[in-house]
């Protein structure tokens, strides 16, 4: 197999070189890390400190347990712990593997800012797929913990991806959904319900729609 067609261990698309992870998946991890340093770490602190009532009731009246708020949001606290452990662990691995620069401070913001610029290098290492996968999973868990919901919006057009059936090119035709996921790398993606490999973006779909409109206008005036 040509190195340019080596499949990414995470998405299966050609990596463009012999790296275990493609540039696109690495870009998603870098974007996720930037979100941690820019706003997500702070939101986790806020969510963790949120006063959460237990909500237990007895006979329609609040019990003593339900009257007392929890001192922290356990879901956000767990997400922050998992994310901190993930980032700190991969910083140690990358630093031991020869990444240049002094180690960051022991905060989510600093660790994420340290890792983001080296993700494209990490993707070429033997542990690249594991690192990128764990970083993305940790960020996804953190985003869910700060109540940033994911929505899927059906789109009117069908998937235009072309596949070969024998020697015949055939349009996929699957239903498309736009992903609305503020703070997540998947925000703005357009996914095919038939084949997840046929993933595009809202911007790309809009550009294709404008191109098709120009072609039709040209044909009408030709």
Can you tell me about this structure?
Helix 1 (23-48) packs parallel to helix 6 and helix 3 crosses helix 4 (108-115). Residues 51-68 have low confidence and may be disordered. The protein contains seven helices and ten strands. Helix content is 46%, strand content 16%. It has helices at residues 23-48, 64-67, 74-96, 108-115, 119-122, 128-145, 202-221; strands at residues 52-53, 57-58, 61-62, 69-70, 151-158, 162-165, 168-171, 175-180, 189-192, 200-201.
Distance between the termini: 45 Å
Strand content: 15-25%
Strand neighbour order, sheet with most strands: 5-8-9-10
User: What structural category characterises the helix and strand content?
Assistant: alpha+beta
Average of per-residue pLDDT values: 81
The global form is globular
- Compressed to H and E, one letter per element, the order equals HEEEHEHHHHEEEEEEH
Main beta sheet, described? Answer: 4 strands, antiparallel
Please bin the fraction of helical residues: 40-55%
| Structure summary, number of beta strands | 10
Radius of gyration: 22 Å
Low-confidence stretches: 51-68
- Discrete helix count: 7
Write the layout of secondary structure elements.
Elements lengths: L22 H26 L3 E2 L3 E2 L2 E2 L1 H4 L1 E2 L3 H23 L11 H8 L3 H4 L5 H18 L5 E8 L3 E4 L2 E4 L3 E6 L8 E4 L7 E2 H20 L1
Antiparallel strand pairs: 1-4, 2-3, 5-8, 6-7, 8-9, 9-10
């Amino acid at each position: 197999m040509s190195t340019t067609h080596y499949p990414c261990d995470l998405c299966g698309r050609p990596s463009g070189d012999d790296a275990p992870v493609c540039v696109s998946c690495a870009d998603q991890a870098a974007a996720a890390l930037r979100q941690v340093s820019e706003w997500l770490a702070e939101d986790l602190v806020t969510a963790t400190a949120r006063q959460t009532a237990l909500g237990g009731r007895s006979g329609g009246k609040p019990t003593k347990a339900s009257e007392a708020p929890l001192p922290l949001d356990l879901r956000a606290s767990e997400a922050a712990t998992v994310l901190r452990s993930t980032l700190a662990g991969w910083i140690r691995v990358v630093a031991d593997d020869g990444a240049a620069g002094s180690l960051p401070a022991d905060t989510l913001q600093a660790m994420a800012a340290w890792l983001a610029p080296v993700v494209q290098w990490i993707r070429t290492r033997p542990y690249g797929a594991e690192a990128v996968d764990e970083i993305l999973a940790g960020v996804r868990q953190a985003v869910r913990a700060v109540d940033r919901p994911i929505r899927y919006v059906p789109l009117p057009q069908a998937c235009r991806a072309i596949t070969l059936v024998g020697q015949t090119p055939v349009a996929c035709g699957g239903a498309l959904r736009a992903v609305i996921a503020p703070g997540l790398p998947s925000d703005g993606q357009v996914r095919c319900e038939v084949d997840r490999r046929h993933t595009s973006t809202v911007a790309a779909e809009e550009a294709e729609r404008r191109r098709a409109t120009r072609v039709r206008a040209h044909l009408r005036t030709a």
